[in-house]
Amino acid sequence: MTAMTLDMLDAGRLAQTQSADAGVPWQVYRDAEQLALVAEPDLPVLCFSPEQLKRSVRAFLDGFPGCVAYAAKANSSHDVLDCVARAGVRVFDVASTSEMAQVAAASGDYTLHYHNPVKSRREIAAAFNTYGCRRYAADTVAEIDKIAEVTGATRGVEIAIRFRLRAIGHSAHDFSTKFGVNPNEAVKL
Q1: Which of 87, 101, 112 is nearest to 21 (CA)?
Q2: Cβ count near 134 (within 10 Å)
Q3: Per-residue pLDDT tens over the stretch 135-164
């Protein structure tokens, strides 16, 4: 089930707008309390506020001096990607060609950062040729060689080297065992 509260609607958006992702019409409720009382959902429900998302994106863009990239894996629904793009985000961190297609469908003006550390040649080719991706992540010589082999001697291709970060404090996950390289290995790459 997908839900939207009345105070969450964009001006002019119809209450029964079809969700582009699931083919399920938005159900409109006055607020989250009404949703809980009326729908009594047994499964998770997405409550989406386009205006609040736009305000949050604008606050972040206005307050952060660096490059802001939206991680598509956080929520790759068409409605969310479209809202994030309309709020001003132009860079999207993606981990698959499926996410690239979703970004392309939602935004005509985008830059992709393909930060999945392991990619097939077919995925690299699709990222490069179909979606114009020019930034890739790697943490091995083999991955860098594979990217170079597929993209050729094209200028403008960037490789982001993934660092291995050890867990500090009370971190719930230790990602140092998952991917990345230490600083000395990074220099060599």
Answers
A1: 101
A2: 17
A3: 999 999 999 999 999 999 778 899 999 888
